[in-house]
Amino acid sequence: MDAPRFRDPQDRIENLTDEPILVVCPRCSGRASVTRERLTCAGCALVRVPPEPDYRAWNRPVDPFFREPLWLRADCCGGHTLWAFHERHLDLIEGFVAAKLRERGLGNRPGLSLVARLPAWMTAAKHRDEVLRTIAKLRATLS
Questions:
Q1: Cβ–Cβ under 8 Å, residues 39 and 46
Q2: What is the 3-state secondary structure (H, E, C) of 29-66?
Q3: What is the Cα–Cα distance from 124 to 134, expressed in whole angstroms?
Q4: How many CB atoms lie within 10 A of CB 33?
Q5: CB burial of residue 23 (10 Å; 0-12, 13-18, 19+)
Q6: CB under 8 Å to 47, separation ≥6 — which residues?
Q7: DSSP tag of 20
Q8: How many CA atoms lie within 13 A of 36 on its CB side?
């Protein structure tokens, strides 16, 4: 069966901070979450208030508020890092990569959407299977 069609929802990376970003807890190395207001870890009860956001961190495998390593990150495709803020971000990447028909959005600035800015190594057909396997491994860490 062919992969489904993907229509770019025009999400931008900064729009994904409306829900908690999953990070590695700096105290216990368990799964913690970050919002614009704080970092919290249910495992060790850590709570921190963030410094000013680092907008240079938006396109790296760290959260933009505390700059902690993302929980959902893994090596992929020969030395690259596949990463996502949370499950919805992972779903978006997976939907785009898995689709054989990818429709770009027609919004005000379609070239600035999250999927329009995915790196070429991630969207290349030759890497599709490895990227999808890596996404499946990351998804398994959510349960």
A1: yes
A2: CCEEEECCCCEECCCCCCEECCCCCCHHHHHCCECCCC
A3: 15
A4: 18
A5: buried
A6: 38, 39, 40, 41
A7: P
A8: 7
Contact present, 32 and 41 (Cβ < 8 Å): yes
Q: How does 124-136 read in b/e, with b if 16+ C-beta sit within 10 Å?
A: eeebbebbeebbe
pLDDT single digits (tens) 48-78: 998 776 666 677 899 988 999 999 999 999 9
pLDDT digit string, tens, across residues 96-127:
999 988 887 665 555 678 888 899 999 999 99
Could you tell me the pTM of the whole model?
A: 0.88
Query: Which one, of 59, 87, 84, lies nearest residue 74 by Cα?
Result: 84
Whether the Cβ atoms of residue 90 and residue 76 lie closer than 8 Å to each other = no
